[in-house]
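Structure (tokenized):
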């Protein structure tokens, strides 16, 4: 399967699963806030189901991005890996492990949130548990997963330098641009909806600057490295949106959950 087809699957999966999952999380969270479930609701099977769902989502996303990396390599000779390519693959695997850790922290925090009954929330020492759970739920898990994904996409951009296209397809090139716009705006929405945008902003800005410098110095036509165009459009829109939100936050002193 071509890298363009895999990217198409990734984008379609993202724009379908993300809003459904966010809607479900908001709905379930609101139900938890209003009232406790019957004690029969809190079982080991439910813990297993929540954990399994998070594991499946993380594994599917990471596997798809890894196969995207492999598909880009298959544009040329798959048998010959240059040393920089091997270094990029190694970093890719390391960041994937970090993302997996973030996914585990997220699953743990969601389970703790769900299994903390309202009676426990009235206890004077509850704020201590809340502090730990909020820390792992927001600044740790969301940042490690989403910002880690931005780093993975940047590594794929670096990898593409060694495996550019031999022929240019203008129509497909513009589809990469459209995918980038869709992905950038949807990620910005997720960052806002999860209320982690301020913690995500440093990685988004740094990866955006690094890629711009990379494209200026790489000496390859952007038409031959279309994945870079996809990520440039996505991350530039994301970074611009985060800067605008940050300025609005400072001027209006708006509420930020994890301050």
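Design, position by position:
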């Amino acid at each position: 399967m071509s890298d363009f087809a895999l990217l198409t699957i990734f984008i379609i999966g993202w724009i379908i699963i993300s809003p459904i999952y966010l809607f479900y999380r908001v709905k379930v969270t609101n139900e938890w806030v209003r009232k406790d479930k019957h004690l029969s609701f809190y079982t080991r099977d439910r813990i297993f189901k929540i954990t399994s769902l998070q594991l499946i989502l993380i594994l599917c996303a990471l596997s798809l991005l890894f196969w995207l990396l492999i598909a880009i390599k298959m544009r040329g000779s798959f048998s010959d890996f240059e040393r920089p390519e091997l270094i990029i693959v190694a970093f890719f695997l390391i960041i994937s492990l970090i993302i997996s850790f973030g996914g585990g922290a997220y699953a743990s925090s969601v389970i703790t949130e769900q299994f903390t009954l309202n009676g426990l929330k009235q206890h004077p020492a509850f704020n201590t548990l809340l502090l730990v759970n909020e820390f792992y739920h927001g600044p740790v898990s969301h940042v490690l997963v989403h910002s880690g994904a931005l780093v993975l996409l940047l590594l794929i951009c670096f990898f593409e330098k060694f495996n550019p296209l031999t022929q240019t397809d203008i129509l497909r090139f513009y589809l990469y641009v459209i995918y980038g716009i869709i992905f950038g705006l949807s990620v910005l929405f997720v960052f806002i909806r999860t209320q982690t945008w301020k913690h995500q902003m440093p990685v988004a800005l740094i990866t955006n600057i690094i890629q711009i410098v990379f494209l200026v110095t790489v000496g390859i036509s952007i038409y031959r490295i279309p994945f870079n165009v996809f990520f440039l459009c996505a991350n530039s829109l994301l970074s611009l949106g985060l800067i605008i939100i940050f300025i609005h936050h400072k001027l209006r002193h708006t509420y930020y959950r994890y301050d």
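Reviewer-requested clarification: The mean pLDDT is 88. The longest helix spans residues 126-160.
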